[in-house]
Amino acid sequence: MQSKSIRFLLVMTFLGATTACEPVVDLRGNMPAPERLAEVKPGRFTKNDVTALLGTPASTSVFGDDRWYYISSKIETVAFFKPEELERQVVIIDFDRSGTVTDVHKLTLQDGKDVTMVARETPTAGHDMSVLEQLLGNIGKFNSKTKDDAQPGS
């Protein structure tokens, strides 16, 4: 009888541990439906038409409003490990100065490029205080008067 309950407890512990490590998949962004995206034709659609059909873009170009980005990605997270991007889609819609679509193209995760961050730091004015300077720096800078003794306007 006791061995059955121990076996049951072990099986339940194993099942609990394996389901706790199940990956969590997050869908981020908002990708327009492919059939709606296919309707966007260069030379025939304006910014208003694109907004009405696809919604507002996730981002626009930094300089001007001539390029719109619709971005979505699929991220998988397993337990405490670093999240991994499984899929990415970026739709880029270019406009001319009059606001008419000139080009529509797609990019995927394979088109992306890894960017390595620079480890340098920009120096700031002043000097770094040691822990001792920080602890002892305020000694003698405060009055001995309490709030109750303080006079208005002093």
Describe this structure in words.
The protein is an alpha+beta fold. The protein has a domain at 22-111. The chain is 25% helix and 25% strand. The protein is built from four helices and five strands; from the N terminus they run αβααββββα. The chain has helices at residues 2-20, 34-39, 47-54, 131-136, and strands at residues 24-29, 59-60, 67-77, 84-95, 101-108. Strands 1, 2, 3, 4 and 5 form a five-stranded antiparallel sheet that branches. Strand 3 and strand 4 (84-95) form a beta hairpin.
Taken from the alpha-carbon principal axes, the silhouette is flat
In percent, how much strand structure appears in the residues? 25-35%
Radius of gyration based on Cα positions? 30 Å
Helix amount = 25-40%
Summary of the model, kept short:
The chain is of the alpha+beta class and about 150 residues long. About 25% of the residues lie in helices and about 25% in strands. The protein contains four helices and five strands; from the N terminus they run αβααββββα.
